[in-house]
Amino acid sequence: MSDEQFRAEIRGWLHEALTGPFAEAVGTGGEGREHEAHELRREWERHLGRAGWIGLGWPTEYGGRPATLAQQVIYHEEYARAGAPGRLGHMSEQLLGPTLLAFGTPEQKARFLPGITSGEDIWCQGYSEPDAGSDLAGVRTRAERRGDSYVVTGQKVWTSLAHLADWCFVLCRTDPGSTRHAGLSYLLVPMHQPGVTVRPITQLTGTSEFNEVFFDGAVAAVEHRVGAEGEGWKVAMGTLGFERGVSTLGQQIGFRRRLDAVIARARENGAWQEPALRDRLVEAYIGLEVMRHSAVRLLASAGEGLSGLEASISKLQWATWNRSLGELAVDVEGAGALLTGPGYELDDAQTHFLFSRANTIYGGSNEIQRNIIAERLLGLPR
Amino acid sequence: MTEASADPRPVAEALRPEAAEEVAQVRASVVEVLDEQADLRRTHELMVGAQGHDPRLHELLTAELGLLGLVVPEHLGGLGLDVSAATAVIEELGARLVPGALATSLTAILAARALGPSAEPLLARVVDEQLTLASALAEDGAGWDLEQTVTRATGAGDEWALTGTKTLVAGVEAARVVLVTARDTCGGLGVYAVDVAAGGVDVRTHMTLDQTRRLSTVHLRQAAATRVDAPGGEGARVLLDHVRAMLALESAAAARACLDRTVGYLKVREQFGRPIGSFQALKHRCADLAVAVAGARATADHLVATLRTGAATRSHDAALAKLVCTDTLMTVAAEAIQLHGGIGFTFEHDAHLFFKRGKSAQLLAGSPAAVRAEVAALAGL
Ligand SMILES: Cc1cc2nc3c(=O)[nH]c(=O)nc-3n(C[C@H](O)[C@H](O)[C@H](O)COP(=O)(O)OP(=O)(O)OC[C@H]3O[C@@H](n4cnc5c(N)ncnc54)[C@H](O)[C@@H]3O)c2cc1C
Questions:
Q1: Residue A124: helix, strand or coil by DSSP?
Q2: Where does the pLDDT of residue B14 fall: very low under 50, low under 70, confident under 90, or very high at 90 and above?
Q3: Do residue A285 and residue B4 have CB atoms under 8 angstroms apart?
Q4: In chain B, whose CA is at the least distance from the CA of A249?
Q5: ipTM of the complex, rounded to two decimals
Q6: Residue of B11, B18, B290 with shortest CB distance to A378
Q7: Where would I find the beta strands (DSSP E) of A42-134?
Q8: Contact of B16 with B84, CB cutoff 8 Å
Q9: Shortest CB distance from A293 goes to which of B2, B275, B298?
């Protein structure tokens, strides 16, 4: 199938799918809107799964669909263009799926991938802890082996979607005497069991998408450990590479929609006449063009996968860009942006402004990306 | 709402296979010569010399490597290679800050090639007579604003005479023919070829802030000329876009080279008992520069693809790449001086060559502010 045919197919499908009962889901659940329309979006995941739109490029035996890297990007572009709902399954598909494909046993792939491609299982990422964020090797959550199971005890934090998830991929310490990168293991832990408590955390947007997760004697099967015992660090780093991967290349279209909206607003309310604001808008336009061309280059050179380094460059670019556009969105509104709806209900510009502060923190903060680029791309000493 | 948003030009569609292996070969052979004959020590010597460039190197690259005919179509006697063969050479010259008229020649040739059949006689001459070319667009007071061009062209058919003054012309001191933008008696803007040796042409070459790039004033008094573009077309714009492309390609390559040198220094220079490159404050600045260089590189590559396919977005893409790449070179070069400390402030050191080249690239063919306004207008903003 040519790329053009592929684009026509996904575009046509989305057009149809979003007019029926899912019409209401359009525009929901994006960044900073994770609290919206959970039931409907859960149903949407299954709908995507039934139509074969989850797991592009994965083996068909696990419910995947053959697709080139370019087609995967096309998929994300069209998804954003259609304003389709924010994916409850994004960590399942973008993080855990590739991790299992790379590091999982045949049994683990057969057991877990179909649940992802069908849109049935929702996963969350249990890495960060109160004392381990950028420095993940400081993880302290313990898992103690008892026969065929591990018993997990500890606390995770900032766990997005944990309140909705069925499973959590957890980085924890299986060797009690170990420190740093050694002695860690990567476990797949069911969320619906005694010993797992999820407590929502309210974000600066006033809404909540991330949580504290307490494991107190929760159980994970030994056969659900990904990679060897004590080698969880390698697996976890693999996941982080995927986190900054293909889907981000398709973001341009979504970014363009946002930029267009801000520009349209500036024209409408006269902010466009303000030279300093107009200049920042033009600067944002130029920044987006640079990102777009960078993405094309990446794709052209990527073959079938992105290197972690290229992903770091693109992460730093888009996170910084989107954060600035968030500031611009409210500056264009002017003081009017200070008024919210009842119950701190935020409009698009306000949400963008507030939520985009997270872009440069999660998925490896800007500072961490800079360390990676300086050390691994430029070869500067540690 | 805007032209740009009606056509979001998705990433995946812009993905096209890379240019031919021939381009890589051309690049390799040029790199071999330049690495041997055109390091920055040589640039240091040339820029304070009387000529400001190296005629022997020019001869080697043109007569022996045949670079002038690189992208000239085969039926006109050239090699007929892809546009990106010439842009690769421009990049390699730019990376080494090689002074002289080769980049400006290739630029004018690329522009002529884009002008179509009307420029074929000139392209045939380029190969036959090994013509070195320059492009003259700017005028006093008007800069590179084509609308304000006042140089006059009188005549008709093949016989024209130009009168006017062009300023800030690069590479003309070594050129045999200059492409000049001028207005005919009906007000139409066109591109004309003028032989420098012909009567009525007076070239004054100036010392320049960017010592790697001499600039000249060209006075034309009833100078004999031939028209290169088709009347009623947008030939002048084509020429301007290509000059911008040259500045973009050179700058992206120079920025990369400058960053590489700086990073190399940070790895060996020690203070407080460790390499200064291990200080995070410096690492992070280098990482930001690396991201900027990657972005510049991407706009330059995209521009090459645009020139290759003759896409309608040429003016937009050339302006955007010119802006982004020259700003990036300026930033990288300024940081290079700082990160080198005292040695970076010396005349002996290379950092200031990049810094000065960056400023000339920024200010030639439209200042950052002017080009930014143009990008905005072209994007419908
Ligand atoms: C909206 C949101 C969703 C998230 N979702 C998840 C999730 O689903 N699962 C999950 O596991 N985690 C999640 N996170 C957590 C996120 O990955 C961490 O917040 C992030 O890794 C930073 O860790 P930290 O918060 O502990 O900050 P710290 O590591 O304490 O960092 C504080 C500051 O110090 C800087 N810093 C730290 N180390 C260095 C260094 N070596 N050099 C220079 N600067 C440094 C950081 O850049 C930052 O500016 C989420 C975060 C947010 C904001």
A1: strand
A2: very low
A3: yes
A4: B11
A5: 0.85
A6: B290
A7: 123-126
A8: no
A9: B298
- How far is B373 from B143, CA to CA, in rounded Å? 15
Chain A residues with CB inside 8 Å of B274's CB?
381
* Residue B59 touches partner A, C-beta closer than 8 Å: no
Active-site residues of A, by number, are 243
A94 CB less than 6 Å from ligand 1? no
Q: pLDDT tens, A7-44?
A: 999 999 999 999 989 999 999 998 889 889 999 999 99
Dihedral of alpha carbons B247, B248, B254, B255, sign: positive
Cα–Cα distance for residue pair A174/A143, rounded to 1 Å: 5
Residues A306, A245: Cα–Cα separation, whole Å:
6
In one-letter notation, the amino acid at residue A343 is: G
Distances (CA, A) of A244 to A79, A310, A366: 18, 9, 13
Alpha carbon distances (Å) from A376 to A69, A138, A352, B191, B264? 24, 22, 32, 49, 14
pLDDT at B63 over 90: yes
A125 lines ligand 1 (CB under 6 A): yes
pLDDT digits 0-9 by tens, B274-317: 999 999 999 999 999 999 999 999 999 999 999 999 999 999 99
Nearest Cα residue to atom 30 of ligand 1: A133
Nearest residue of chain B to residue A4 (CA atoms): B13
Shortest Cα–Cα distance, B296 to chain A (Å):
7
Assigned token pair, A316 = 């730093």
- SS3 string of B56-122? HHHHHHHHHCCHHHCCCCHHHCCCCCCHHHHHHHHHHHHHCCCCCCHHHHHHHHHHHHHHCHHHHHH
Cβ contacts (< 8 Å) between A73 and chain B: which residues?
11-12
CA A332 to mean position of chain CA atoms = 28
Q: Which residues of A touch B5 (CB under 8 A)?
A: 256, 260
Ligand 1 neighbour A208 (Cβ under 6 A) = no
Q: What is the sign of the dihedral through the CA atoms of B309, B312, B314 and B317? A: negative
State if pTM tops 0.80. yes
**For residue range B239-282, what is the model confidence (pLDDT) as tens digits?**
999 999 999 999 999 999 999 999 999 999 999 999 999 999 99
The closest of A40, A370, A6, A323 to B10, measured between CA atoms, is A6
- Determine whether the interchain pair B267/A379 forms a contact, defined as Cβ–Cβ distance below 8 Å: yes
pLDDT tens readout for residues A302-355: 665 566 788 889 899 999 999 999 999 999 999 889 999 998 999 999 999 999
